[in-house]
Specification:
There is one protein chain. Helix content is 41%, strand content 16%. By secondary structure, the chain is α/β, with parallel strands linked by helices. The chain has 3 domains: 31 residues; 200 residues, D-Maltodextrin-Binding Protein, domain 2, CATH 3.40.190; 100 residues, 3-Layer(aba) Sandwich (D-Maltodextrin-Binding Protein, domain 2). The longest helix has 30 residues. It is globular, with a radius of gyration of 24 Å. The protein starts with a helix and ends in a 29-residue tail after the last helix. The N terminus is likely disordered.
């Protein structure tokens, strides 16, 4: 009897071992995003259409924006060529399905990172590319310096949305008086503000900046620095592929680290001769940082040379010299009062 039990236990263990190996092989076969990307010859990025400053296409089909530059950065890390990328338009309703269905390789800036999205949709959030949140747009003529001085104001906001709930929570918790001017469509909300039906317009900072750029005199309107709520937006990849997760996450870290080290697209060539050990390490002069991810030794050097550092990417797409005219604020480096920081590239 004992012999039979041992035989059955051994057989069961063998079956489980074979099943485990088969599952591991299947997972590995479906997880090798880098192999698929290289065989295809380009990265496929899922981007939101008509997102000023982040992802817009010109009449000739040329894409530009912060999201687009991040996709170029990933292409540069993988191929050493920022043009080795194609863009597929996704919507908030289908973007995660497009990713898990392998229609795209990554989403550069999907919805805010939440526990349910990160654990229930078959996707992984890598890090924060852009700190967004619910902000306030107000006409320059109002003598207020803080959101806390807006008691008694009228607020234009979309009806029955998280933004409307955030206004209620923010003002009621501080015992501030307010009056809502609501509409079901964003375009109607913006029009109400433009027509003077309310004192302030509230929504995501990126949306407010885009709408300000379209107003008759953008300079007459100010985006207040304080946020009613926060949201961390960044690259998203499929679950189950640690190598691709690392490539995307460390591409973002490399953009930020380059700015921290003072390396830009303008000086990166000269910086290869720097006496600073951290800079030489980052640029692959004294270390091969790409080996563990299956990338070339000079991947971070090429990334900065072709795309720039995070500060350059931010400024040309959404910064003060762009139509959105956003201040760095929370998207500045941690050494300058912001929240952006990079993991150690070593």
């Amino acid at each position: 009897m004992r012999y039979c039990r041992r035989r059955l236990a051994a057989a069961g263990a063998a079956v489980l071992a074979v099943f485990g190996l088969a599952l591991a092989a299947a997972t590995a076969g479906h997880a090798a995003t880098l192999d698929d990307v290289r065989a295809r010859g380009h990265v496929v990025c899922g981007v939101t259409e008509d997102a000023p400053g982040f992802a817009t296409a010109s009449d000739d089909g040329t894409w530009s924006g912060l999201d687009i530059d991040f996709c170029k950065a990933v292409a540069t890390a993988v191929f050493g060529d920022k043009t080795a990328v194609k863009y597929r338009v996704v919507t908030p309703a289908n973007r995660y399905h497009a990713l898990t269905a392998r229609e795209v390789d990554l989403l550069p800036r999907a919805g805010g990172r939440t526990l349910s999205r990160d654990t229930e949709l078959g996707v992984r959030f890598t890090d924060t590319l852009f700190h967004d949140g619910q902000g306030v747009l107000i006409r320059r003529g109002y003598a207020v310096a803080s959101v806390l001085e807006l008691s008694g104001t009228t607020i234009c906001v979309m009806k029955d949305t998280p933004a409307a709930q955030a206004v209620e929570t923010f003002f009621q918790s501080r015992k501030m008086r307010y009056q809502i001017v609501a509409a079901e469509k964003w375009t109607d909300v913006v029009k109400a503000y433009a027509d003077g039906a309310c004192t302030v317009l509230t929504g995501d900072v990126a949306m407010l900046a885009a709408e300000r750029s379209r107003l008759a005199v953008p300079a007459d309107h100010v985006l207040m620095q304080e946020l009613i709520s926060k949201e961390m937006l960044g690259p998203v990849v499929r679950q189950g592929d640690d190598q691709w997760f690392s490539i995307v996450r460390w591409t973002l870290s490399a953009l930020i680290a380059a700015e921290e080290l003072g390396i830009s697209s303008q000086n990166v060539e000269a910086q290869r001769g720097s006496a600073n050990a951290d800079i030489r390490h980052f640029l692959g002069v004294e270390a091969d940082l790409g080996q563990g991810m299956g990338l070339a030794r000079d991947w971070s050097y090429q990334l900065v040379r072709q795309v720039g550092n995070y500060g350059e990417v931010f400024e040309r797409n959404v910064g003060l010299k762009s139509p959105l005219a956003l201040e760095r604020g929370v998207n500045n480096l941690w050494t300058r009062g912001g929240l952006m920081s990079a993991g150690a590239l070593r």
